[in-house]
Amino acid sequence: MLGHTDERVLFRVELMENLQRRDLTPLDRAKAVSALHRMFQQEKGEAWTNADTGAELDKLQSDPRTKGEIRDPKVASRDVADSMMIESFANDPDVQRASTRAEAIKIVRKKLQQELTASLGELSADDSVDHEIFHGKCEDWMPKMEDAFFNGIVCDPPYGVDADTFGAQTMVGGHQYEDTQESAINRALIIMAEGFRLCKPDAHLYMFCDIRYWPDLAEMCKPLGWSPFATPLIWHKPGLGHAPQPGYFGRRYECILFAQKGNRKLSKSHSDVFEFPAVKEKIHAAQKPVELIRELLSLSFFPGESVLDPVCGSGTVFRAAHDLKLRATGIELDEKYYNICKQVIGELK
């Protein structure tokens, strides 16, 4: 009979041979690599690392018959970690159907993210989500707020397109604020500068803006520490849209500046176009649909985290944040809309 050591050697040889097969499914390969790693750990002790197993795999791949190459140790270590991650979902039908290793990893990471989000939601399910609204100018309130408190900012400041002079287009809801280019740029600068201080090391910024000013805003945020996405996000509105120049083309989209502080990633993949109908019965001229704001928030933030809207209008951010178990803080200058925000928060308690 073979001894225990001999059995391990044969098992290792079998695993190595299996790993050289080209017809292994991503899951089969992950199982083999994971089994090999556990075997090495049993033999060598807990000091044996993913990188050590990766190095052993590279020796195999370096065989002249396979024409392999020695990988960077970090890459080899990641290979082993990914294999163990894939193996942990061995009974998942989606992982079993994956045709490539990259596809299997993508599926597993998405499922892990879903599990994390669900777990966070359960932890916060019994807690009341508190929201807060301040009355006044954002340039007065933001300097008073605590450093590194928020996980991000979602805001819809004035566009600087003289919307307060549009006449009939401003009658419903109305633009009760100055909307010159100079005032809009100054307001955006304040939000970016103070917002960077108020945000945690890894944070996201979403700022609605006129597409003509997007390049300027993207450049403005860089010296303040933000890293803007290379192109604007687009909110597409099905229908005729509004006519910024009556008698000519209707505009069916609006633009969003997206920027990050640190290295915060999105929770899931998404295109740079968001399609949601505009609000029909507005109580604020610049009111955005709850569904749109909720989608933006869901891409960047997790239950229990805090977001700031320094120009929160009629309080859409509170409804969207509440749906996701986020804590929202808003600032609103106009007393009418400040009171509407207070009413919204009261309804959500």
Explain this structure to me?
It is a single chain. The protein is α/β, with parallel strands linked by helices. The chain folds into two domains: 4-124, no CATH class; 132-348, Rossmann fold (3-Layer(aba) Sandwich), CATH 3.40.50. It is built from twelve helices and nine strands. Strand 8 (306-309), helix 11 and strand 9 (327-332) form a beta-alpha-beta unit. The radius of gyration is 27 Å and the shape is elongated. The chain starts with a helix and ends with a helix. Residues 62-67 and 166-175 have low confidence and may be disordered.
Summary tags:
single chain, 349 residues, Rossmann fold, 2 domains, 9-stranded mixed β-sheet
Task: Reconstruct the topology from this structure.
Layout: H1 4-19, H2 26-44, H3 50-61, H4 73-87, H5 93-97, H6 101-124, E1 132-135, H7 138-141, E2 150-155, H8 181-198, E3 199-209, H9 214-221, E4 227-228, E5 233-236, E6 253-261, E7 273-275, H10 290-300, E8 306-309, H11 316-323, E9 327-332, H12 335-348
Parallel strand pairs: 1-9, 2-3, 2-8, 5-7, 8-9
Antiparallel strand pairs: 3-6, 4-6, 5-6
